[in-house]
């Protein structure tokens, strides 16, 4: 199962989408834009899990596709 994550960068100016918490896939100016992109990736590569992290990099929501 692939695991995608959406998390803010160091200064929270951009939101990063990562696969398996390794290399960034892409970065987005808004949290909602990053979540939409990560959802598309997760759905295209199901079974997948999407973790949405807050500014402290704690998981606040998990979704499975």
Helices, by number, come to 1
C-alpha-based Rg, rounded: 10 Å
Helix content, binned percent: 10-25%
Strand-residue fraction? Answer: 35-45%
CATH architecture, please? 2-Layer Sandwich
- Secondary-structure element order, as H and E? EEEHEE
How many structural domains can be distinguished in the coordinates?
A: 1
Kindly name the structural category.
alpha+beta
The best one-word shape is globular
Strand order of the largest sheet: 3-2-1-4-5
CATH class: Alpha Beta
Description of the molecule:
InterPro entries: DUF2188. It comes from Bacillus thermotolerans. This protein has 65 residues and is an alpha+beta fold. The protein has a single domain, classed as TTHA1013/TTHA0281-like (2-Layer Sandwich). It is built from 1 helix and 5 strands, in the order βββαββ. The chain has a 5-stranded mixed sheet with strand order 3-2-1-4-5, covered by helices on one side. The mean pLDDT is 94.
